[in-house]
Every structure is written in structure tokens, then in C-alpha cells.
Write a structure and sequence with these properties.
4 helices; alpha+beta; eight-stranded mixed sheet; 8 strands; globular; 149 residues
């Protein structure tokens, strides 16, 4: 699926096994500081056991992988496990467009709630709050946010 963000066209596609290391490296690069501070560091075995390409979408720009999303559909809500953007595509509207697409996908499945967990000091928290997500649980170093769609 092609998605437009301002003057750029991105390709959103399903994850394949060949995307494993891209997802691994981007998540580690973006989250290592938080994982080290709050969870004792990066644990490759945890990543390996949590990786499920059926939940993941890859976003490409000019044939280069630049982001991914990881959505899990539960009975009562959609859980946004991850939305990770490469540094050079941040703050350009891609996160907003991806959130909007996830909300549409959730509605199409007959689900009306999206939840996510975010580290309190993660700048992405501002994006979620700006788009109508609100805290439903404080877990110490993270917040569980929710939005009704």
C-alpha cells in the first residue's frame, strides 16, 4: 500500500523473514537507552521470542526500509506493540499518518480501542497525547495509553 506524507510517497508492506535484522537494529537503536535504564539492558533472546512477522508492517521510502509498526489484535482492543521510525523520517508527519492508518485498521476489525505502552521520558509520548491517547495506568517508568476509535 502506498501512503503519502506531504511530498513523499512511502510503501507499507508486510514483514518477511528478511526484515528480521532491520526490525532488530531499528528497535535496539531507538530503545536501547530506555531498556538499559529501566529493564537492565537489551536482551536479544527477548526480542527473538517476541518477534512475529505476522504482526509487523515495514515502511519503505525509495526502496529503503525506514520504519515499522507492530500491531496485535486482541478481542477487546488493538495493542500497538511498536511504532519505530528511523531518525531521518521523524518529525515529518509519518508517525501521524501511521497512527491514523492503525486506527482505520482497528475500526475495520470491529475493535474500538487502541492501547500502547510508552516510557514516560520517550518523546513519542507527546505524539500519542496530541492524537487523543490518554493514560489509563501508570506502571512506574511506563504509561499505558488508550484511545477510543
Amino acid at each position: 500500500m502506498k501512503i503519502r506524507v506531504n511530498d513523499r510517497t512511502f510503501l507499507l508492506r508486510k514483514c518477511t523473514g528478511a526484515d528480521y535484522w532491520f526490525v532488530y537494529r531499528l528497535l535496539k537503536s531507538n530503545m536501547l537507552t530506555y531498556f538499559t535504564k529501566h529493564l537492565g539492558g537489551w536482551k536479544p533472546s527477548v526480542f527473538r521470542s517476541d518477534f512475529d512477522k505476522r504482526r509487523i508492517s515495514i515502511i519503505e521510502y525509495k526502496n529503503r526500509r525506514v520504519a515499522f509498526t507492530d500491531l496485535e489484535f486482541e478481542n477487546d482492543f488493538t495493542y500497538l506493540r511498536n511504532i519505530q521510525l528511523s531518525k531521518f523520517v521523524r518529525r515529518k508527519g509519518l508517525g501521524t499518518v501511521l497512527l491514523t492508518l492503525m486506527e482505520k485498521t482497528t475500526k475495520k476489525r470491529g475493535i474500538h480501542i487502541i492501547r500502547l505502552r510508552v516510557f514516560k521520558e520517550n518523546p513519542a509520548k507527546r505524539l500519542y497525547l496530541r492524537h487523543g491517547y490518554y493514560p489509563i495506568k501508570d506502571e512506574g517508568h511506563t504509561l499505558v495509553l488508550e484511545k477510543k476509535v
